[in-house]
Amino acid sequence: xxxxxxxxxxxxxxxxxxxxxxxxxxxxxxxxxxxxxxxxxxxxxxxxxxxxxxxxxxxxxxxxxxxxxxxxxxxxxxxxxxxxxxxxxxxxxxxxxxxxxxxxxxxxxxxxxxxxxxxxxxxxxxxxxxxxxxxxxxxxxxxxxxxxxx
Length: 150
What we know:
It is a single chain. By secondary structure, the chain is an all-alpha fold. The protein has seven helices and two strands; from the N terminus they run H-H-E-H-H-E-H-H-H. The protein has helices at 2-19, 26-37, 47-57, 64-74, 84-91, 99-132, 134-149; strands at residues 44-45, 82-83. Helix 1 crosses helix 2, helix 2 crosses helix 3 (47-57) and helix 6 crosses helix 7 (134-149). The radius of gyration is 23 Å and the shape is elongated. The N and C termini lie far apart (62 Å).
């Protein structure tokens, strides 16, 4: 069951990531999907609502029993429905993370954002250099010499 659950969580997170807009987290997309499929606006998803939500996100399971087992896992209070808090906490490990893990995850996310920003900046620099031709390279060399003297 653990292997199926782990695979399920990875698949859900990957599908949510695909649906994310720039500067939007997987958790935000999950909340939107959850609210959309919470037909009775109870704040909780019944089994059928849960199934439809997963299908909409693009997650399918082999059997009905697998889906029921996963639903039961996320129904931590055994109420017969899954609240967004139960699902989000279990999926994104909110309850399990210690402060050091949270700090480590934040540093990792920050590093990913920095790398994406660096790539974007490098792309812009290349475009600017290409638009200026040889003069761009000469100007860049002068700028570096000025910076080194300072």
